Amino acid sequence: MQIEGLTAVGPAEYELAMSFKPGMRVPGRLFADEELVRMALKDRVVEQVANVAFLPGIVGASMAMPDMHWGYGFPIGGVAATRARDGVVSPGGVGFDIACGVRVLRTNLVADEVRHLAKEIMHELSRSVPKGVGSHGRIKTSRRELEEIFVKGVGWAAERGYAWPEDLDHIEQGGAHPGADPEAVSSHAYERGSDQVGTLGGGNHFLELQHLDEIYDRGLAEKLGLFRGQLVVMIHSGSRGLGHQVCTDYLKEMDRASRRLGIDLPDRQLACAPLDSPEARRYLAAMAAAANYALCNRQCMAHWVRQSFERIFGKSAEALGMSLLFDVSHNIAKIEEHEVDGKREEVCVHRKGATRSFGPGHPDLHDEYRETGQPVVIPGDMGRASFILVGTETAMTKSFGSTCHGAGRVMSRKAAKRQFPVDALSRELAEAGIVVVAGSRSLLPEEAPLAYKDAAKVVDICETAGISRKVARARPIGVLKG
Questions:
Q1: Catalytic: which of 205, 211, 350, 405?
Q2: Which of 112, 185, 237, 454 meets the CB 3.0–4.6 Å disulfide criterion with 205?
């Protein structure tokens, strides 16, 4: 099938020819079906995919996952790798919510046996976990403590009793991204992050009680400690105001660098700098600091969740089996080694609204995941389902070890508020047996299920393309929103 320069090249895979926009250094690659391709054309995502292909040093293809939609510079759902030796880094390829990501806590509880406690559990979680835009956390941090968080990540939380020692083995990068430099973070960013550790935030961030109602691969599920009927907790949040400020600061610096170096780009939002430049080194150091802040943020919320369950059930979190399955970020740029033109080469992989999905046997995975592949957590919307996947060897050759990150919006927040009255939406969710607790009830329509693609379709496309594999489906029982 041919649609305006796009050609089907495999199951759920389309190539955008370099002739689509003169100046593209590599083709585009969309993981999608025909319907999603047409949506991408309408949303101008295809144009953004083409624009990213102008980045100096880009290799392979400028990619977009099936949850793709319009973003700042890069599309959300975008993946691009640039050569470490002569490529660039672009803050637009990471986004404002640096290291926004997802984690899943397992329990040994059967969801149907505790469903009658859903309201009580959600009330307790609402009391324990600060939420909402601009929310203030239970942990106040001095500048020196923030510097430690920037470098140690979850290690800082572990030292203070907010993490189990084994949690660090179940977090991307062992709970701390390397290369962070507190000196690369502005004073304004410090101010914005000083009281937001352990806070959920607003927008599409959430904390959910979920019921694993479908197991697609029993063998993989057993190895990951998952079973049909299991109650799990999913946390989706990021680096809050601190990460936003880091991105804001460095977009200005990168714009100046691009102009000074004469880097010709079709969109100023793709502002970038060579990886060996002072600007790039500072950005990557500040980005790593913000990423470690995000990991620590989710860890502290997981600690409040464990404490809440202890109060509700009168048992220790250990006795309740509240171990961490995995925590992975989906807004990050990382130096990784991949095969490029038949040779192993260091590249900077930008994942903006895309999740790392390393396959079985990858040396960067903890021993626990060497056989299964890396767990991939895909949040859906608050009315349908989320998914747990694993990475594949195919992803290593097709997508620089990347897959989707969620459902992906199909409707703006303003349009959703017009289309889904809050009372009707609340009634619909209640009738579906979903307990929703929101700091701002009036903002719920912005997150209405139909404002998003169906995550089931998104993960099916990724599985068809071979870049991840389904393990389990999780239905919401209780939802905490900002």
A1: 405
A2: 237
User: pLDDT digits over 332-349, tens only?
Assistant: 999 999 999 999 999 999
Half-sphere exposure of 34 (CA within 13 A, CB side): 3
Cα separation, 388 vs 390, whole angstroms = 7
Phi first, then psi, for residue 396 (nearest 5°) are: -65, -30
Question: Is pTM beyond 0.85 here?
Answer: yes
Q: What is the pLDDT of residues 187-220, one digit of tens each?
A: 999 999 998 999 998 889 999 999 999 999 999 9
Are 372 and 366 in contact by the 8 Å Cβ rule? The answer is no
For 338-343, the CB contacts below 8 A with 24+ separation are 338/81, 338/396, 338/400, 338/401, 339/396, 339/397, 340/59, 340/60, 340/81, 340/83, 341/59
Active site residue 405: yes
In this structure, are residues 40 and 32 in contact, taking their beta carbons and an 8 Å threshold?
Answer: yes
Question: For residue 315, what is the DSSP state?
Answer: S
- Count other C-beta atoms under 10 Å from residue 41's C-beta: 16
**Measured distance CA(59)–CA(393) in Å, rounded:** 19
CATH number for position 428: 3.90.1860.10
* Alpha carbons 477 and 208: distance in angstroms, whole number: 7
Nearest to 217 by CA among 480, 478, 476, 463: 463
The domain tally of the chain equals 1
Model confidence over 260-294: pLDDT tens digits? 999 999 999 999 999 999 999 999 999 999 999 99
For 61-93, the pLDDT digits (tens) are 999 999 999 999 999 999 999 999 999 999 999
The vertex-140 CA angle with 251 and 135, nearest 5°, equals: 60
pLDDT surpassing 80 at residue 137: no
- pLDDT for 441 equals 79
Say what percent of the chain tops pLDDT 70. 98
Using H for helix, E for strand and C for coil, what is the string for 395-453?
Answer: HHHHCCCEECCCCCECCCHHHHHHHCCHHHHHHHHHHCCCEEEECCHHHHHHHCHHHEC
> Residue 57: pLDDT above 90?
yes
Helices H, strands E: what count in the chain? 14, 20
pLDDT above 70 (res 471): yes
Domain enclosing residue 418, as ranges: 2-481
Rounded distance between C-alpha atoms, residue 351 and residue 328, angstroms: 12
Q: Which residues contact 366 (CB under 8 A, 6 or more apart)?
A: 169, 170, 174
Sequence letter at residue 480: L
Q: What tokens were used for 320? A: 């309740």
User: Which backbone phi and psi does 144 adopt, to 5 degrees?
Assistant: -65, -40
Helix, strand, coil distribution of the chain in percent, nearest 5: 40, 25, 35
Coil, helix or strand at residue 44: coil
